[in-house]
Amino acid sequence: MSKVGKKHRVLEDKLASVEIKKPDEALDFIIKNSYAKFDETLSLDAVLGIDASKGEQTVRGSVLLPHGTGKTVRVLVFAKGEYEDAAKKAGADFVGAEDLIEKIEKGWADFDVSVATPDMMVAVGRVAKILGPKGLLPNKKIGTVTFDIASIVSDLKKGRVAYRNDKGGVVHAPFGKVSFGVDKLLENLGTLLRSLKASKPAASKGKFLKKIVVSSTMGVGININPEEIS
After folding, report:
1. Among the four residues 136, 166, 170, 214, which has the most C-beta atoms within 10 Å?
2. How is domain 75-158 classified at the CATH fold level?
3. What are the pLDDT digits (tens) for 168-178?
């Protein structure tokens, strides 16, 4: 059984003593009660009304948050020729082809997201079993397999967030930092939830967003009503 720290227990007691009805109140509580010595990340946990065991009900997508995530994202691009040049100009941290694939095969994975042009995907397939489990494999569904390299690299640097449900049918995604303040966090959260709603599979019946919880890195989870966010 994991141990809960004293500060966390105090925070749980404080949360139990207040009434939080709206998303902005939840975000305000999180910000005012942040006790970490670093700028905590705020995350969304969404329990979805899907059968995660069925492939046709997989929820996967990405969205550009208006205020970014507050995180510096290291972008790797698999590309050649003019697309390699475009990636470098757009600010990609690592750009290459077979040289990067060989480096990854040797155990290197010092990046946060990877992008590839469609013609590179056969070669990238060599490291699919390495990158896939880490969530680092380029994927057309979230826009990271494309010839429009400049746009996707720019979006990723600005704060494009990718999400996918886990085996329990839950989506976990970051949407900013404590330092952003309530207004920016609320706008980011709304953008993320609208994207999530739009990703509802046709095979999913009934209520899609069953439970929404927001929390900070060191904080407590707070239930919110997604219908309260426009």
Report:
1. 214
2. Rossmann fold (3.40.50)
3. 999 999 999 99
